[in-house]
Amino acid sequence: MRQPFEPESFFGHQPTTTASLPDPQPLLENLTRCVVEILAGARDLQQIARWVTDDVYRNLVKRVVLSDRARRARGAQVSRPTFSIGSVVVDEPRDGVVEAVVIVHGRARSRAVAIRLEGLDSRWRATAINVL
User: Which intervals of the chain are annotated as region Disordered (predicted)?
Assistant: First the structure.
């Protein structure tokens, strides 16, 4: 009996093993920096489009719009935020998946950025980003 053709298994994202991918630590730190700057209005969201999935991109677009509205309502100017990257806690729940929490220390407060990276098409891509 012949199996039906499933286009998603052929044309969709192909999983990649952790061993075939580079160390995720630099990407986690850079994505965190970029996301914080994007939400502050100091960086364009398009700059990280290739490193995130479509769902993450859409969610970040919503957050950017809300942040922009809040800034305009306060009459605040866009400025590059001053912050430093603190500790990075990384866990690997299964092969080809990395979940991390990156602590960001700003002037007024510290925040956590949770990121899930999955190995897709021979590179890491963020499938979830949450700024807490």
Answer: 1-24
pTM for the full model?
0.87
**Kind of pairing, strands 110-120 and 97-106?**
antiparallel
**Residues with Cβ within 8 Å of residue 72, at least 6 apart in sequence:** none
Cβ-contact 120, 15 below 8 angstroms: yes
Instruction: Report all structural domains of the chain as residue ranges with CATH numbers, in order of start.
Output: 14-131 (3.10.450.50)
Q: Which of 25, 54, 19 is nearest to 126 (CA)?
A: 54
Count CA atoms closer than 13 A to 124's CA, side-chain side: 22
Per the structure block, which two tokens stand in for 28? 């986690």
Q: Is 28 exposed, middle or buried (0-12, 13-18, 19+ CB in 10 A)?
A: buried
Tens of pLDDT, residue by residue over 39-68, are 999 999 999 999 999 999 999 999 999 999
**Token pair listed for 45:** 């969201």
